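hey can u check if this looks right to u? its 314 residues, i copy pasted from the old doc so theres a chance i mangled smth
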Amino acid sequence: MSAPVVLDAAAVAAACPPAGAVAALTAALRGGLDPAVDLPRQAVGLAAGQLLLMPSDGGGALSHVGIKVASVAPGNPALGLPRIQGSYLLLDAATLGVVAVLDGQALTTLRTPAVSVAAVLGRLLEGSAPLRVTVLGSGPQAHGHVATLAGALAGRRELAPVTQLVREPSRAAAIDGALVARLGTPASDDALRTADLVVCATSAREPLFDADLIAGTAVVVAVGSHEPDARELPAELCARGTVVVEDPGAALREAGDVVLAIADGALRAQDLVPMRDVVTGAVRPDPARPLVFKSTGMSWEDLVVAEAVLAGAR
């Protein structure tokens, strides 16, 4: 058996552009992959944070299986280090031989915004005016969502200049060409009111804004939390909107935006719409209501994108 292919961060980025990751995820869901049968993620608590073990066999729908081992260290950003690090092992599904080792942080940075865009792309393509995007956060996912949107919308809908909202503008990593404003100011409120798409990519544990600031036809994506006691979105927004999740079971275990909204009486578990149903067209969310996509990250997503990366590298 040949030695595994080793793909560092630069190689992962070169092998699969963001639009390619969106296309791979969309094709997998339309081809029959069911996130509901994905293997559960396991979290192991440590003094400095936690280890996340994310195995997936793709429900038997893919030619590979894989596992990501990621570390989450909340104190790292203050030290100038990444909050999330890790590696991904891609194995042949029949022999379980390792065929590739990928930089886990680069894979996560690629697949997370690709999942978001795949979930809401149909709604975004319904408009023709330049898409007005407001991004909350300044980390890799804030930047990654803008790059992925640009790639997926290329030739189909123009992006208006992005507004980036942060708590400390002087310390934020600004998105290229974005207008940067301090969260909670009149300028940030205006950016939220006029946004067609709001992306929340922060480490916040409490709601970032008032639900009334979000337009009735807006799309809101929240990717910052995967813990049941932390949320970026107000419960009232979940009450107003159609809430789409990767998988209802996973969301009820891990998505604080969902769990806490249900506890507040603003949302019911049966109201959750699986991402698969939206991507395949089985469900078309009401265009007159906000579309909320809450992502926690699931193992099948890493597997699908890792396969696309390997194909591109070869």
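Residues 3 and 99 are 7 Å apart (CA to CA).
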